[in-house]
Amino acid sequence: MHIREIDTAKYPATVAVQFLLEDPEGVGQEKAQLEFKAPRTRTLLELALEHGINIEHACGGVCACSTCHVHVEKGMDSLTEATEAEEDRVEEAPGLSRNSRLSCQCEITGNGPIVVRVPAWNRNAVKEVPH
Ligand code: FES
C-alpha cells in the first residue's frame, strides 16, 4: 500500500499515538506496546505500516474490506468521524465493539493522545483463509 507523503512543515509529528498489540509477532513486532509521534492527516493504518506494524489491509486502504479493524481505546475525538461507508463495512468485522474503527479510514485530526488496540484475531482470521 502507498503511504502518502505529508507536508511535515505544515503538519509536524506532534500527536502521541500508542499501539497496543495483542499479538505482536503476528504483526511483525517484538513488543506489545509501541508509541510514536504522528503528523495530523496521517491515517492510523499508514502510521502503523510506516513503523513496521503490519496490520492486515486486504483492500489497500479503500474501505472495501474490514481486515484493518482496530479498537480505539482513547482519543476517538482526535480522529475523523466514521463515514456511513465505514460504519457499514466495520459491522462485518469480527470482535466488533463500540470503539471499533477501520484504521485506514481514521485520519488524525486532533491533539491526541490516541491509544489503538490491534486485536490478535485479525492476523489469524486472514492467515487461515484457504487460497
Ligand atoms: S484496508 Fe480494507 S477497509 Fe481498511
Describe this structure in words.
The structure is a single chain. With 131 residues, the chain is α+β, with helices and mostly antiparallel strands. The chain has one domain (14-127): Ubiquitin-like (UB roll) (Roll). It has three helices and five strands; from the N terminus they run E-E-H-E-H-E-E-H. The protein has helices at residues 44-50, 84-90, 121-127, and strands at residues 13-21, 33-39, 69-74, 100-102, 114-118. Strands 2-1-5-3-4 form a five-stranded mixed beta sheet. The radius of gyration is 14 Å and the shape is globular. Residues 124-131 have low confidence and may be disordered. Bound molecules: FE2/S2 (inorganic) cluster. The site of FE2/S2 (inorganic) cluster has 13 residues, from loops.
